[in-house]
Amino acid sequence: MSHRLVTSSSNPRVSAARRLRRRSQREATGLILVEGERVISDALELGVVEDLFVTPDAGGVASAAEERDVRPLWVSASVLRSLSEAVTPQGAVAIVRSPLISATDISSWSLVLVLDQVRDPGNAGTLLRAAVAAGASAVIFTEGSVDATNPKTVRASAGALFRVPVASGAELEKVAELAHGAGAAMVGAATEAALSLYEADLRVPLAVVVSNEAHGLSGDRRALLDETVSIPMPGPQESLNVSIAGALVLFEVVRQRLYA
Predict the structure, then answer these.
(1) Is the pLDDT of residue 131 over 90?
(2) Domain 12-98 falls in which CATH fold?
(3) Given this model, what pLDDT does residue 206 score?
(4) What is the pTM assigned to this prediction?
(5) pLDDT over 90 (residue 48)
(6) Is 176:146 a contact under the CB 8 Å cutoff?
(7) What is the pLDDT at residue 196?
(8) By the 8 A CB rule, do 204 and 198 touch?
């Protein structure tokens, strides 16, 4: 079946979606943009899709949307590019209700990943994926971190943003207060830490803190941690990308809880 395509980005629905590329608009409306058929399919399953824009090659997700009473707007490739930050858009962009919660609403501190002033959206999205894979009970983006609903973060998370409770905007001091109040320890990785990751007891409730890619945790922020651990690196490399380091810590937690 052929569909009449919207070819102008001044279409009211398209214009409303484009405004959500700005963080201020996402925060004001509680709506975000997501793209790609896989992520949108997840959002449809959760019932959080408010609007959908598709090109003719994305008929599968359009049919799934119609089954859930979401009426897609068929658009040209150029209009879709105006909504996407991807070099090659994946055929569909949706407006969805933001899943973000307050850190005070986290119900379980069994394993919480804390992104402290992590500013790169690709790293943030990858850390979200690792957290979901490791069975984390929540993820927190502290004040100064990249926006968890940034389209690049959402795309890099490959739908993980919708599979784990995500809180945003809390100061690290508040996170420490909440973690300790719930009986969880604050643990972070530092190259110079004397205690190896593989010697630490990570079977207790934990908030795993990963920090700014360039500078790591400063002294006053590190003082909020109950323990710092180092990741053994026998090769000639001084440090790891924050998403790799975070994933290593998370999966050592998994290993200990499953097999230790």
Answers:
(1) yes
(2) 60s Ribosomal Protein L30; Chain: A; (3.30.1330)
(3) 98
(4) 0.91
(5) yes
(6) no
(7) 96
(8) no
